[in-house]
Amino acid sequence: MLINVPPRSACTPSEITPENIYLSRRQFMGAASAAVTATMLPGWALADGSVYSDVEPGKAPDWFAEKQSAIHWKAVDVKGESITPFKDATQYNNFYEFGPDKGDPYANAEQMVIEPWTVKVDGEVGKPGTYSLEDIIRPQQLEERIYRLRCVEAWSMVIPWLGIPLADVIKQFQPTANAKYVRFETLNDPQHMPGQRSSFSLLDWPYREGLRMDEAMHPLAILAVGMYGRVLPNQNGAPIRLVVPWKYGFKSIKSIVRISLVSDQPQTTWQSMAPNEYGFYANVNPQVDHPRWSQAKERRLPSGLFSPNIKETQMFNGYAEEVAGLYAGMDLRTQY
Ligand SMILES: Nc1nc2c(c(=O)[nH]1)N[C@H]1C(S)=C(S)[C@@H](COP(=O)(O)O)O[C@H]1N2
Ligand SMILES: [Mo]
User: Which keywords annotate this record (predicted)?
Assistant: First the structure.
């Protein structure tokens, strides 16, 4: 299996070109392009959050600020594809705890209380316990992973996440030989999550997701704590969320409060609600349609009504070279 993740040393400060430093943020903002231009700026330039243009700065907690100067930028890139503007990535969301409409998370997620934050770790692990977010992040280096995000609803974005490999975090908990799957749970807080109070919601809470152990240990799977060079906005799953770029977006569970290592395949939220429509694996696959729509193409945001940006969907969302080996011998039509 070819793993396309460059070593941590692959991107050094010497690669920061004078042009990148020279061009001010304002000049980039003036560029007549819908694309946000990524620049590689040294740590000191982060003071105003200007790694990307048009980013609303977030108030970084100490554990995040401590890591900022040593971020390994562009640990994974998407070559020629444009990064989705910050505004689209943070105002067009799925986070049903805050409501069913795409603008609801942006409007409502500010209510979520993210400090202090703990993650309960249990099940088949040598080191169960309730860990503070700081405890989980402190031993790790933050990496930037620029990934495609493909929603099962057939829209997609390209998002520069900041995070840590899930595998490194799982190893800290010392999984036992019986650990075959990882189960994740989102915060349950109806008082601050209006979608959880709604009697119209078809989902049962807390939101749950899961991965097979080898998927969870794959180097492309990360826990994100930031995006666009800043701390994660609440509507994107602050303070810590999963990102599994080769699977449909619903697998990438937000605002995680519990990680359980288990021996049996866990029940997941969307699969429990409509098992004929949403499977446990949910690998992006242009050949296996959703029962109600085709998955062959996708709408890459921003995509206007009069200038739709339609792309062919790629097998495993473009990460086949890295992950296809995980599914060797499986029938992806029945194991969707
Ligand atoms: N807890 C929780 N996690 C969630 C969701 C949700 O409703 N609740 N929606 C999922 C879906 S369907 C998608 S497409 C992605 C969207 O991530 P984004 O809003 O950061 O782009 O989050 C996923 N994670
Ligand atoms: Mo989604």
Answer: Metal-binding, Molybdenum, Oxidoreductase, Signal
